[in-house]
Amino acid sequence: ETGVTQSPTHLIKTRGQQVTLRCSSQSGHNTVSWYQQALGQGPQFIFQYYREEENGRGNFPPRFSGLQFPNYSSELNVNALELDDSALYLCASSRDGSSYNEQFFGPGTRLTVL
Amino acid sequence: DAKTTQPNSMESNEEEPVHLPCNHSTISGTDYIHWYRQLPSQGPEYVIHGLTSNVNNRMASLAIAEDRKSSTLILHRATLRDAAVYYCIPQMTGGFKTIFGAGTRLFVKA
User: Quick check: B93 pLDDT over 70?
Assistant: First the structure.
């Protein structure tokens, strides 16, 4: 059984640019959640996708957007990057659209915005 | 969303039991209590969850207070590999959002 994978591992961008991060969910999982983790803090929920639809969203502006594909992999897009967007971005997959179900996290993508 | 309070850090000796407390006094009657941990340079991993009664699995035990306003994660014999940040998370059945607090950083001494 393949676990959750994320790409790229690290990324450096400049302020104002756009970035796309990718996540492959675990086999049999139809739900992907994305989190932002600043240094020294707990992960902050961005949004969740269930069967290709956004299922819920945290307190993040619209320049954070996402997609989920028919194979349940997912993308996180961030437009107009700001310095504060520098963080570790985590995705987690689970079953059936509920965060109650055990979430399996990927290793994260470290984004640095200069 | 229920608020949680956990110690910022705790220290344990290897091979000794560790009791990690969590206060969740505003938890609703239908929220489960989930625990995740995050090892250095990794994403969080699920540890255990429960509703009212105590729970055991191969990783840990979860003791839930009778009034459900607090819980304790118990690692029976801490190892160096257990050094991590431990998060206590009230989780609504059918909810879509997971709210992580700051967690407790556990240090394990050899």
Answer: no
Judge contact between A44 and B1, C-beta under 8 A. no
pLDDT band at B97 (very low <50, low <70, confident <90, very high): confident
Of all residues in chain A, the one with the smallest CA distance to B103 is A42
Contact A74, A32 (CB under 8 A): yes
Chain B residues within an 8 Å CB radius of A98: 93-96
Q: How many CB atoms lie within 10 A of CB A46?
A: 21
Considering chain A, what is the average pLDDT of its residues? Answer: 94
- Return the residue in A6, A45, A99 with the most chain B beta carbons within 10 A, the one to mutate for interface testing: A99
Section B55-69 average pLDDT:
94
| B40: DSSP letter | T
Decide if B44 and A58 are in contact by the 8 Å CB cutoff.
no
Name the residue among A44, A89, A52 with its Cα closest to residue A73: A52
- Nearest chain B Cα to A31, which residue? B96
Listed in sequence order, the residues at least 6 apart from A40 whose beta carbon sits closer than 8 Å to its beta carbon are none
- Mean pLDDT, chain B, integer: 92
Nearest CB partner across the interface for A100, out of B36, B92, B101: B92
